[in-house]
Write a structure and sequence with these properties.
The complex is a heterodimer of chains A (about 550) and B (about 220). Chain A is of the alpha+beta class and about 550 residues long. Chain A has 3 domains: about 90 residues, Roll (Ubiquitin-like (UB roll)), CATH 3.10.20.740; about 120 residues, 2-Layer Sandwich (Alpha-Beta Plaits); about 240 residues, Rossmann fold. Helix content of chain A is about 25%, strand content about 15%. Chain A has a 7-stranded mixed β-sheet with strand order 15-14-20-19-18-16-17, with helices on one face. Chain A has a 5-stranded mixed β-sheet with strand order 2-1-5-3-4, sandwiched between helices. The longest helix of chain A is centred in the N-terminal third of the chain and has 15 residues. Chain B is elongated and about 80 Å long. In chain B, about 20% of the residues are buried. The chains are: A alpha+beta (about 550), B alpha+beta (about 220). At the A-B interface, loops of A face strand 2 of B.
Chain lengths: ~550, ~220
């Protein structure tokens, strides 16, 4: 949006308020800019314009007929009336249209997952059409609870035939999975023979764009009512795309990811794998206390004991230490780790390129959003020059030669994701101490002598740098589980014990410090990042767009 | 009374002039509260009032003791030999029970459909409106597609519940009503969390009328 070539600006009046927008914008978007929300079902900023719901009708002065604002491009001097004096005709038309849409709509709100974020429900309350004029028992019933495969549940009765999902399957995911069937009042959406949807990795988005409860998520189905959920603006950590999303959670449990619109990154979409990735960040195997090797096995210990054990291991290995950063860590944590490696570990054997994913950061994995790099912050590691002094291969070689006594891992990637596990095992066999930060317990952590429980990105503030070099903030959704503590805090504590200066403080402080020190960040400030992130060079953060 | 007024006049010279003697003194004037009050208060009692401020009949004396004993004895005799049942203040609970209003807000009950299935569709309206946040619901998929949703779990924490009846007001299905039952004593805390099974099936309630249910008149539609 902001990068588009400059189009001439057009000035028009909407409900008595003057607004200046680029030529070609539609009236609905222009009204949004001055805070006037025109009701709509079928319009979606990232899909083609259909104009089928007729809920966005407005009065345009000098025209005998009402115009659908979603498909009406602005013209200079246009005078638009949405509500109030002069717009009685449009208001009447919208109210009548809403009554038509509600004619056969079932009274499902109490059991409908969409209730609370349903456009039909909102407009119904807004327009006050409380009494149905449809005689009892005459409602047309369609099929309910139609199972459309792994992700989607369809309720044909609730559909308002806005065709958002049909257009999504045609224009974005190109699976053509959902279609209209039959005609007239019996028109309904569905798949061929109501069969399951397969081969569409983005089908979860139709749930988000469905303005009513016709398409609901099977994963979220009946789990929570939406008004109980709290939200945090975050970023997906499932690949290097860094799709903007909203984490909906309650009592420390994430119930769903919902995409946040960012025209520069993910538009309004989220892939199904990313949508499901919240499950990977939770689970019963979360580490809640530090583990220290005692009598040959890892046993829970206090933070003081774990830090003492780590300090002893580092002092023991002085001069023969290597460190590995993690492309899953936040940029601020990586910055603290770089200083920690230099000042506390006093080693140049530092790298992050454990699994070769850094080469695929900019490789698309499909045609829509996904990238082949499964980590969110390889670019951040690269910007911090974490892989300049050494390489993973060199570190493993040194380990095998017995030149490394203590290995410090900021994440468990070396133990879980290295392409040659046999070589890693051989190398670790000759290392005396392995200190690792991990969020989840697993058998792969067995070689470690100290395991420090890390928080997931959902439990901390920070930034990731995506494949474009866009710095994007994620916000803490809920407090850390158990005794888990952000790696940056543990690094600072350990640094203090070792008498080394490791930067510490809030993510904001660390980011601003890092941005001043590191030219790759182009002098970006934390406050520039906003909701949609920012790229060095383009310093102004784009204003938040509507979903 | 007159002595109090004169005392106040002499004691607090800096204080605003006392009200005219004809006007009856306010409570604050009669019972001069000495806590944090003037330092010249004679002495303090545990009630915070200085005995000097009390009326004659209020002061501790043998007469007051006798007067108190008269009241006690009178009431004791009244209770021992009540002239009618209204004079008796106690009942022999649990053999005797008081009659409560048909709108009494006792322990909740989950009602059923004629086929015996639970009426609740797990819409969470009661849990949403509950000011004590004592209702915990987990929803599940009901085999009948016209019903779609039902509670797999429905717990009410009776220790948290304030018996306000808002859940009954909020219910769109009349699936939750209140009963006349108010006996919820238990030996452990976990027993006070009433699960779905207990809320839906309490045979002892079959003989008692339902309690608070504002929507409908009691009728044959209510399956309990």
């Amino acid at each position: 949006m902001s990068e588009a070539p400059a189009r001439p600006m057009v000035e028009l009046t909407i409900d008595g308020r003057k607004v200046s927008v680029p030529d070609g914008t539609n009236v609905l978007e222009a009204a949004k800019l001055v805070g006037i929300r025109i009701p709509n079902f079928c319009y979606h900023p990232d899909l083609s314009v259909e104009g089928s719901c007729r809920m966005c009708l407005v009065t345009i002065e000098g025209r005998p007929k009402l115009a659908p604002s979603c498909s009406e491009p602005v013209k200079a001097g246009m005078v638009v009336r949405v509500s109030g004096q002069g717009a009685e005709q449009a208001e009447d038309a919208r109210r009548a249209q809403l009554e038509f849409l509600l004619l056969n709509h079932p009274l499902d709100c109490p059991i409908c997952d969409q209730a609370g974020e349903c456009k039909l429900q909102d407009y119904y309350v807004e327009h006050g059409r409380y009494q149905s004029r449809m005689p009892r028992g005459l409602k047309l019933h369609k099929r309910k609870v139609v199972d459309l495969g792994e992700r989607i549940m369809l309720d044909k009765e609730r559909c308002v035939l806005c065709s958002r999902c049909v257009r999504f399957c045609r224009e974005v995911s190109e699976s053509y999975a959902l279609q209209f069937f039959t005609r007239g009042v019996t028109t309904e959406i569905g798949t061929e023979n109501d069969g399951p949807i397969t081969g569409d990795d983005y089908i979860g988005n139709v749930v988000d764009i469905c303005p009513v409860g016709a398409l609901t998520s099977k994963d979220f189905r009946f789990k929570q009512r939406v008004w109980f959920l709290k939200s945090a603006e975050s970023v997906c950590d499932h690949c290097s795309t860094g799709c903007n999303l909203r984490v909906d959670h309650k009592d420390g449990v994430v119930y769903r990811y919902v995409p946040r619109r960012n025209p520069e990154v993910n538009r309004s979409w989220l892939c199904d794998a990313g949508r499901d990735s919240y499950k990977l960040r939770q689970g019963p195997d979360r580490l809640e206390a530090p583990l220290v090797r005692a009598a040959g096995a890892l046993a829970p210990a206090s933070w003081a004991d774990a830090l003492a054990a780590a300090e002893a291991a580092i002092r023991h290995g002085r001069g023969a230490i290597a460190g590995l950063a993690s492309p899953r860590a936040s940029t601020e944590t990586l910055y603290a780790f770089r200083a920690f490696a230099r000042e506390a570990l006093q080693t140049k054997l530092v790298d992050y390129r454990v699994d070769g994913s850094h080469e695929k950061t900019k490789t698309m994995a499909d045609k829509v959003l996904r990238h082949a790099d499964p980590h969110p912050n390889n670019t951040g590691c690269d910007w911090l020059k974490l892989g300049q002094a050494a390489s993973v291969a060199a570190i493993l070689d040194a380990c095998e030669k017995g030149e490394v006594k203590t290995l410090y891992l900021l994440g468990p990637e070396l133990l879980t994701r290295h392409p040659e596990p046999e070589r890693v095992r051989r190398a670790l066999g000759r290392v005396e101490h392995v200190i690792v930060h991990a969020t989840h317990a697993s058998d792969a952590l067995a070689p470690a002598s100290v395991v420090l429980p890390d928080v997931t990105f959902l439990e901390m503030d920070g930034t990731f740098v995506n494949y474009q070099g866009r710095v994007q903030r994620f916000r803490r959704a809920y407090p850390a589980r158990g005794q888990a503590s952000p790696a940056a805090v543990a690094l600072a504590d350990l640094g203090k014990r070792l008498g080394a200066a490791v930067p510490s403080g809030s993510a904001e402080k660390l980011f601003d410090e890092m941005s001043t020190a590191e030219s790759a960040f182009g002098g970006l400030r934390w406050n520039d990042l906003g909701l949609l992130g920012a790229q060095p060079g383009a310093r102004q953060a784009v204003a938040a767009g509507e979903r | 009374m007159s002595s109090t007024a004169t005392e106040e006049k002499t004691e607090s010279t800096a204080a605003p002039p006392a009200p005219p003697a004809s006007k009856s003194p306010t409570v604050a004037e009669r019972y001069r509260i000495v806590e944090g009050g003037p330092a010249e208060a004679p002495h303090r009692t545990h009630t915070g009032y200085a005995p000097a401020d009390l009326e004659q009949w209020e002061r501790p004396s043998i007469l007051a003791t006798v007067r108190g004993l008269v009241v006690t004895t009178t009431n004791f005799m009244k209770n021992l030999f009540p002239r009618n049942r209204w004079q008796k203040p106690t009942i022999s609970y649990p053999e005797e029970r008081r009659a409560y209003s048909p709108r009494f807000r006792g322990i909740h009950q989950l009602t059923k459909r004629p086929d015996g299935s639970i009426k609740c569709v797990a819409c969470f309206m009661c849990a949403t409106i509950c000011p004590a946040e004592c209702i915990v619901i987990e929803a599940g998929e009901y085999p009948d597609k016209r019903v779609e949703k039902y509670p797999v779990r429905f717990d009410i924490d009776m220790l948290r519940c304030v018996m306000c009846g808002l859940c009954v007001d909020a219910c769109p299905e009349e699936a939750i009503i209140m009963t006349g039952d108010y006996e919820m004593a238990a030996f452990t805390r976990s027993e006070t969390v009433y699960p779905l099974s207990l809320l839906a099936d309490r045979p002892q309630l079959a003989s008692t009328p339902p309690g608070y249910r504002p929507r409908y008149e009691p009728g044959p539609d209510l399956v309990r």
